Structures are given as C-alpha cells and as structure tokens.
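User: I've been trying to design a sequence by hand for this structure and keep getting stuck. Would you show me what you'd pick, starting by listing the structure so we're on the same page?

Assistant: Good idea, let's start from the same input. This is the structure you sent:
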C-alpha cells in the first residue's frame, strides 16, 4: 500500500484519530483518542507526514475499561480500553468548527430522523409512510457515497429507456 512521490514512501494506514476537546490544554496542544496498538513514535510520524505539522512532544495514557453488570446474565463485563494521546505542536492549534447539519444536508437528515422518532413513538414497529420514504430518498441523494454511482431517478429512467429493443422479422 506504499505509494511513491519523489524519494519518500507514503503509507496510508487505516487509522482513526478522534479529536477530544479539552479546555485545560495549552494553545499548542491537542488531545486525540488513538488505537491501542500505536506508540508515541507512530503517532508523531503519522501527524507529521499526513497533516504536515511539527510535533514536539507526545504523551500517552491508557484508560482501563469500565466495569459494568450485565442484567441478563448477571456477569460483570468490562468495556474496551481507551488510549489518549496529548500532542504538543510547534504551531498554534485551533479546533475545527462544528459542522452545520442543516446547511450541509439541507435539513433533510434531521427531518428524516425526527419523522422516524415520531413513528417509533406510535408503537413498537416503525411504520414507514410515503413522506418518510420521500425524505429517505432525498437525504440519500444529498449525502455523497463512495460505494455507489449516482442513483438519481433521472439516471435510472434514462438507462432503462435507452436499452435497445430488438425486433424480430
């Protein structure tokens, strides 16, 4: 999975770094929730090469999973462990702005979720109405998906009407 650009190998790992907002940190520090298998050198290398920032210090802590009681079996269960990394960056760090769901998805996603919640309150079974199906289709059209081509109704009707019809003589 290595790609070459010039003299450096660039690896694109499947890692998820989740930013954790923390008001106690300095202006050049950021907190991340990282996978357990990463060490300090991996975190520094990832942030340096992928985001092109100068990392000066990395501190990590592993929090143990919380103990809870399963009410069905009566056994004690432990939630997964969490690793938190506090990274000190040479530049000043600003948290990204919260996305505006109404602006980005034109309010369709929120309206669809509210309609589903209302239908769920009516009874134990979710009853999809015609309006709910309409909202679902509109919300799917506005959310980009890398796994499907354009599924717009216009492209479906064009492809079905453009199929060649064979006539036998």
């Amino acid at each position: 999975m290595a790609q070459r650009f010039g003299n450096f190998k660039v690896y694109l790992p499947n890692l998820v770094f989740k930013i954790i907002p923390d008001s106690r940190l300095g202006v050049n520090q950021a907190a991340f929730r990282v996978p357990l298998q990463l060490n300090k050198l991996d975190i520094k290398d990832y942030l340096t090469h992928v985001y092109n920032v100068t990392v000066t210090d990395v501190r990590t802590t592993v929090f143990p999973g919380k103990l809870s009681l399963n009410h069905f079996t009566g056994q004690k269960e432990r939630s997964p462990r969490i690793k938190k990394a506090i990274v000190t960056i040479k530049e000043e760090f600003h948290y990204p702005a919260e996305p505006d769901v109404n602006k980005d998805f034109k309010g369709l996603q929120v309206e669809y979720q509210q309609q589903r919640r209302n239908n769920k309150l009516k009874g134990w079974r979710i009853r999809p109405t015609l309006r709910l199906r309409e909202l679902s289709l509109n919300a799917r059209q506005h959310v980009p998906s890398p796994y499907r081509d354009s599924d717009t109704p216009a492209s479906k009707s064009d492809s079905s009407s453009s199929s060649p019809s064979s006539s036998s003589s």
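That's my pick for every position. To get oriented when you compare it with your attempt: Strands lie at 2-5, 8-11, 18-20, 29-34, 55-63, 67-69, 76-78, 82-89. The longest helix spans residues 108-122.
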